[in-house]
Sequence to fold (261 residues):
Amino acid sequence: MTGDIHVETHASWRKFILNRPEKLNAVNPAMLERLLAALDTAEADPAARAILLTGEGRGFCAGQELGPDVTPGPNGPPDLELLAATWHHEVVRRFRASRLPIVCAVNGVAAGAGASFALACDIVLAAKSARFVQAFVRIGLVPDSGASFFLTRTVGEARARALAMLGDAIGAEQAEAWGMIWKAVDDAALMPEAEKLTAALARAPSQAIAGMKVMFAAAATNDLTAQLDLEARLQGEAGRSADYAEGVRAFQEKRPPVFKG
Ligand code: T3D
Fold:
């Protein structure tokens, strides 16, 4: 795929690169449509077992492109509810619902919906020079694309409220210290580490990984009883998989397992 979403095909995983560096990879509906199409393609490909999302240039993603889609024009303001529901929120829903683990390598500033897209991924690494900005308030908007959901659950409500209401940037190391992301790494180490992690996930038992995604999504609203029921059901399914048989066999034979999914 060419244009503003570039897809790199590796043997067992795919790298999606937001590719509009001159606008810090700000997104618009056409670009998000191509991102969703790339996700469809990867999900339909049995050889694809993990995804790495990153940005080209000095930014990761500056959120929605502040262009005609979101700038009020002579005919009145655009319908941001429709825009969010159709595109930005669909990306977040699809990332979370995907069977594939999604690693995000935040290579530079992540602002507005760009920060939300990162937080919607399963494991987030960020370059130490990267910043996360809840930019919405700076232009008179509220957080969207899951920002209020992800932030209250990762950094807690006090920090979430301040980040959203003040719109201050925080650095990657602060984001790690607050539990917003998995790890801040030296800039030069970001891509090697992110690729290594993605390749490791691609070697992991894919049914178990997909089950974990379902489980963690449900944990946001389930009570303990419902969550235990879900864990039991998903464990039952994992226990019937060839990967479980291989995992146990490898343990007994004292060798690394080879999971095929
Ligand atoms: O319904 C809906 O869902 C609506 C959408 C809502 C979701 C949202 O994402 S709302 C939030 C939209 N995003 C923003 O408000 C962020 C705007 N950008 C910035 O505040 C700053 O650019 C950054 C803090 C991200 C980075 O600052 P800095 O100083 O490192 O870079 P810069 O010089 O501001 O930007 C570099 C270029 O990228 C610049 O272009 P130029 O002047 O060199 O030609 C700038 O205009 C462009 N750019 C950055 N962000 C956007 C953008 N162009 C279009 N849209 C952007 N969002």
About this structure: The chain has a mean pLDDT of 96. The CA atoms of residues 103 and 197 lie 8 Å apart. The pocket of T3D is lined by residues 23-24, 26, 62-66, 70, 80, 83-84, 88, 109, 111-113, 133, 135-136, 138-139, 141, 144 (CB under 6 Å). DSSP finds ten helices and ten strands in the chain.
